[in-house]
Amino acid sequence: MNDETQATSSSKAFSFISRSWREVRDSADADIQLMKNRANSFKNLATSFDRELENFLNSANRSSAPAEIDFVKKLQPKISEFRRVYSAPEISKRVLEKWGPRARIRIDLSAIRNAIVSDVDVDADAERDGGGIIEFDRGKRGRVGFRELWGEREVGEWEPIRTLKMRLREFERKRELSVEEIFGGFKSSDFVEKVKSSWKAICKEPEESKDVPPLDPTELLAHLVRQSGPFLDHLGVKRDLCDKIVESLCSKRKEQLLLRSIAGGECSVLENDNINDELDLRIASVLQSTGHHYEGGFWTDFGKDDLSDKKRNVAIVTTASLPWMTGTAVNPLFRAAYLAKTEQQNVTLLVPWLCKSDQELVYPNVTFCSPEEQENYMRNWLEERVGFKADFKISFYPGKFSKERRSIIPAGDTSQFIPSKDADIAILEEPEHLNWYHHGKRWTDKFNHVVGVVHTNYLEYIKREKNGALQAFFVKHINNWVTRAYCDKVLRLSAATQDLPKSVICNVHGVNPKFLQIGEKVATDREQGQQAFSKGAYFLGKMVWAKGYRELIDLLAKHKNDLDGFKLDVFGNGEDAYEVQSAAKRLDLNLNFQKGRDHADDSLHGYKVFINPSISDVLCTATAEALAMGKFVICADHPSNEFFRSFPNCLTYKTSEDFVARVKEALANDPQPLTPEQRYNLSWEAATQRFIEYSELNRILNNNKDDAKSSRNDGKIIRKSFSVPNLSEVVDGGLAFAHYCFTGNEFLRLCTGAIPGTRDYDKQHCRDLHLLPPQVENPIYGW
Which CATH architecture has domain 513-682? Predict the structure, then answer.
């Protein structure tokens, strides 16, 4: 029915256009015919005038006197010339060709006038003597008056010429009126306005096409180098070098524009000091001037839901869950709670579910029979620490524990556990870990914005293993591969992590509010004169060599005599606990090993100094917690501790001698109370604000899906647009497809260390999570 209505409307519109054009054509034909008739009338008038002159001359020739009059002899050739020019058959054509909106038709009668006036001037005196009577034949009495013969003395008032001028003026007036009636009515008609508006809508003219110069070779080269940055990084070319090349190329262009603007006396519009922004705006302005719009490339997925008018959905996907007290289990849980607290978006936390056999390896002294039991445990633990009920959803995906890697590996396609209707923003905690063996839908195709948060310095751990340098080389490039293919933005907690594509450095973690409360209580006790710290120094962490135990034992063994009488309590459990304790006993170190416990435990409040010599951490959560409780922290001068250096109670060391000095300094003095600003910087409220800012989540949550940056040029706003064909997007899509094909081969998965059977979840996972059995592999699944 809708198609019939559209067809009827189209038919009526076409009929209306045809009828209007026929009316205009008929009117124009009638006016053109009128012009032709007027031209023919003028031609006939000229012919009649020619006959009158010829009759006059013939009558003069028949008399005896005119044949001898000199002025008649001079007039004859002029009249013949007039007759030849203005009696030609093509006179009508010439008149029509010279007609314009303001045309005037003139006939050159200067030859006749000059001939007449010259003869009249010869006998001027005789004319005055004879009362204006010219004697044509002195031998006869017959006299002819000059005015009777020629009319007035002025040639312009000669009767035939005056008649001709009158008729020409009348014709000119009618012609102008007819033209105005035709074209004036045509211009003001509704039909023309409709045609013009339709034509503008169909053929939209690009704006400012004449004012924007095209890109020059240096700008094109700078854009190509910048787009190829991640690819060059794979080849070993550092990002800093690419940035310097782009800056050099853009600086040359900027200098040229400045010279031109100064020479032309114009104001420079290059107010932005960011070279990348200037280049983006320059490309956007050129594309805007040409009217170009990029519709997407080979890898573009047009299946994303448009959620711009709905409440946004954030899915946080992590690699661990409570009761495993690791950073990737605790911090994502707090992030979900504080993002949900803002009430600007719906939040879902997606954590791994382990079968009973794997739970016994990972979770200390507790196992769960169902996901609901584990969810209740997680919520109770969280509410005890944050002091409010967090309104977010917890979901589970199948996972398996790898003893060799000491981590949980996802089984199957993790992205399928977020429904498509809720697939808006994804936060991948440890994106490289989640995607090492990911075989399924590409995250950036399913979600509108994907943010990766790097927690772990895997390269540092791998270098400690056998053939660590070779393994680290391959892992580095695999991490680059998967994070570039599956993330839009990557946040690195510190510079201790691998420099990944699309990454920025920012600490987006806070501390448990309970630690800040403990710090406030300590400050209050000290103000009241009470002793806040009754114990010395301690160290807390998972008991594996990579968590700082190797550095700790080396330092204490080297300076055993310098730290005579120094006692250190160590809290922790882990796979290397026996080896660590054996090494300390063998070296006769004064270390008191105890079981691991929560850092907020009451038994730890009385310690004044927290020692953390680890250089493998990305951002040690225990260090932040100790600072929040008002303690001294002694840590290495290392990029992982960069965030803590601004706190006065953080004492860093570069050498082992510095370590000894810092220990003695901390034991001899009392830590300073935290200021309100310092407490806020450690809180999860501040960390959430930093996360929203650096992940560009504020732009996404505000429904601003276009490139938000803009520049004002000559009073007009030019926005950087995603319509620019992006070489990186094409390469990223190719990398994602290659990774999908690679992880689909079970043999290749096993060669790279994957757990057998993790391409799909198993039957036990189906029973625990109430899942359907995995479907037969689709060769184009996810693409």
Answer: 3-Layer(aba) Sandwich (3.40)
